Structure formats: structure tokens, C-alpha cells
Amino acid sequence: xxxxxVPPVSRRTDLLALGLLFLIATISFADILFGVNQLYMRDLxxxxxxxxxxxxxxxxxxxxxxxxxxxxxxxxxxxxPEHEVFYPxxxxxxxxxYDLGYRLHILIHIYIGLLGMYALLxxxxxxxxxxxxxxxxxxxxxLYLSYVNLLPILFCAAWLPLTCLxxxxxxxxxxxxxxxxxALFLGLQFLVAEPTTVAQTGVLxxxxxxxxxxxxxxxxxxxxxxxxxxxxxxxxxxSWRGADPAGHRSRPRFGPFAAL
Length: 260
What we know:
By secondary structure, the chain is mostly helical. It contains 12 helices and 2 strands, in the order H-H-H-E-E-H-H-H-H-H-H-H-H-H. It has helices at 11-28, 30-33, 43-60, 98-123, 128-139, 142-145, 151-158, 160-173, 176-192, 195-215, 220-223, 230-233, and strands spanning 67-68, 75-76. It has a two-stranded antiparallel ribbon with strand order 1-2. Helix 1 (11-28) packs antiparallel against helix 4 (98-123) and helix 4 (98-123) runs parallel beside helix 8. The protein is globular, with a radius of gyration of 31 Å. Mean pLDDT is 81; it is low at 239-243 and 250-260.
């Protein structure tokens, strides 16, 4: 199976797998989606909840959110990546209900991570059950869920599978639309501007690009010429084996005695 081959599976199977992932995530976070419980661990309540509310109030009063006058005698907002001012999904906090918008702008990244990882694994040739299990392990695994209390890392990591998906497709197929999609999702990561995740994304896709570049060229062993054989030249070159007048076969002479 080559790198661009996807197992022949009906689209209905993929839609069923995606729907099941969506359903499991919804059931897992149903109490938060419907406002029964709230996300509260660590920075979520001590930092992000009040700062997002300050951002909301500043925008609703018609100001550009470049300065937070309420914290420590004033702090920058737009210049601080912790606030994700230029990230589109941040603006879910402007919904009529701040609590609902705050919850949605966090939980939507769980769905993005799940569905994006499934699409990436399917593009790599995995069958739906394997891709489904891999996506579930990523999107609802301990490492990814631990980012929920570190919103810039969560927001940036959510787009990583889709960035890798379209970068890989572009390197394999060289289609402009794949390049555009890869640039879009990488651009979203840059809008979040979480430096460590952006750097790791760059290293990951850079190493994969080097890997594809190495295997897109002839292997080094094939580039080294091998000695010519008479069978390669056919009858174009006469044999070095000749007969002497006595009818004996002569042997070639090599080295310093070749002229004797």
C-alpha cells in the first residue's frame, strides 16, 4: 500500500465513526454543556474566567481590547497571547450568556481534536476502527484533557491534527488546495500564539518534510554506479578473450605486467 492509498471504505462508515466520536464527547461533557456543572480547576476560575469577562466588557463598551485597566494598575490584553484576542473562537464569549460562551469556547476544541485526529489517521491508511480508537485516545486521553486548564495550549493543540493532515497531503500530492488548508490551520495556531506548541508543530512538520524529501529521491545505493558487465553492452564491445595461433585461450593481464 502506498502513502496516498486509503482503504476502500464507504463514506457512511466514516460518518458513523465521526458521529460516534461526537456522541461520546457530548455525553462525557453533558453536565458542562447544559450548565449543571462548571469547569473550575486551576487557572480556569482564578485567571481565565475573570480575564475573558473583562475582555467581553471592554468590547461591549465599544473599545479595542488593547489594555486591561482592572488588573495590577493596567496590563496589555491584545499584546498578551494568554487572551487570544485575535483568535476567532475566542469571540464565542460575546454570546448573550457569558457562561455558555465561556464553556463552548473551551469544549469546542475537544470536538476539533477528536474529529481532526480521526481524519488524519484515515488519511494515513488506517481502517475506521483503528482510526476511531486512535482519535478517541487522543481527544479524550489524559494528556489532551489536561490542557483544558491551560487554554492557549488546548486551543493550539486542537488544530495540530488538521495542520499535519493537510501538510502531509500537500507533500504527497502538491495540490494548491491542500497548501491553502494547511496554511489556514497553521495560521489559526499562530493566532493562538502559544509558543511551545507552535514550535513543536514546526519541528514535527519540518521533520516529516525532510523524510518525504529523502524518500522522494533515488536511494543512495542506486546512485552509485556498478561495474559494467559485457552482458549490459551486448555485442557492441568485443570480448577480451582471444585465441592465440596455437588455439589456446589467452587470459588478460593486469597490473605492472600488463604490457609484457
